[in-house]
Amino acid sequence: xxxxEFMQQQAIVxxxxxxxxxxxxxxxxxxxxxxxxxxxxxxxxWVAKQLHQTLGxxxxxxxxxxxxxxxxxxxxxxxxxxxxxxxxxxVENRHIILVDDVLQTGRTIRAAMNEIFDFGRPASIxxxxxxxxxxxxxxxxxxxxxxKPTLKEGDYISLTGPDPLTLVIGKPSKDSEGQKxx
Amino acid sequence: xxxxxxxxxxxxxLKHFLSIDGLKRDLLVEILDNAESFTSLxxxxxxxxxxxxxxxxxxxxxxxxxxTRTRTTFELxxxxxxxxxxxxxxxxxxxxxxxSLLDTLHNLEAMHCDMFVVRHASSGAAHFIATxxxxxxxxxxxxxxxxxxxxxxMLDMLxxxxxxxxxxxxxxxxxxxxxxxxxxxxQILALNTLGVS
Lengths: 182, 197
Prior knowledge:
Radius of gyration of chain B: 17 Å
CATH topology of chain B: Rossmann fold
CATH class of chain A: Alpha Beta
Oligomer: heterodimer
Mean pLDDT of chain A: 90
CATH superfamily of chain B: Aspartate/ornithine carbamoyltransferase
Strand order of the largest sheet of chain B: 2-1-3-4
Number of helices of chain B: 6
Number of strands of chain B: 4
């Protein structure tokens, strides 16, 4: 099946703005005044860039390439085309907002948290994802979600970009199934 | 001697790394790309300087010929990838007491090792071990006689690539006692494969 367009740039930008508003509330509730932000390559970084700007976080955005931490590495190998992780701040005792594009199985987030802890012990991690999808295989819950669309069973949703950002729905190709951990 | 294509499995992925000979350009580029992605680990200000890629795997460094730098760097590389490492200096172990090479190999196989890194003074030693070890084991040649030293060559290719973007316009002079040099032999093969004429 050919992928179909589900949502376009402006609607996605609005979703991310909504996430920023909700994050502000969460940060206030947690009395967190100086969070740092980390986006997961590749789609999570696109979402994080906008969130980072909207929330006015002073420290540079961190990025994670979780290839070295994936639990299916022995099956699919590395993906050296993805940019390496870059955490330009001390993780120790910091409040971190972790951002990804699609949360499904929870395995990407598990890998990302393992990697974050290899940089240091954060004070807390909040998870923000643009899309939440059924199919969790691990006990991981997002704190802030842009949208939970109603999808047919087996449908695959992904963010393409960065310019313009587009959400597309389709059956996973053999290729994308191998690359996707969500 | 084992041809290059016997180093790869049916999907064209490396099963053993014994020689540059017979390996396609794409595969060498993939090795360089992967190596490059690991260099970022050193720059990252991580409190844990390792990643869990090879967690649970056991790698045995089988060094029949003395080497400090190659053995320690292989050991460090394996540890940075979270593998467990066994260092065997064979000149001081069982083979000098009359145990054959194959006896030693089968003993290590029984201990559930996953990979042998082999340094030997005789050409073809790593090929011999790859041919005779159990099918689940991978073998990396860390230098055999005057034949081949593929990992050293790939390290040099990475250094060249970090300084010169493209291999194709390069003319490379290798200086030193190259007649007996396994490193030079592997470098020449790698340079040719990567497009240096």
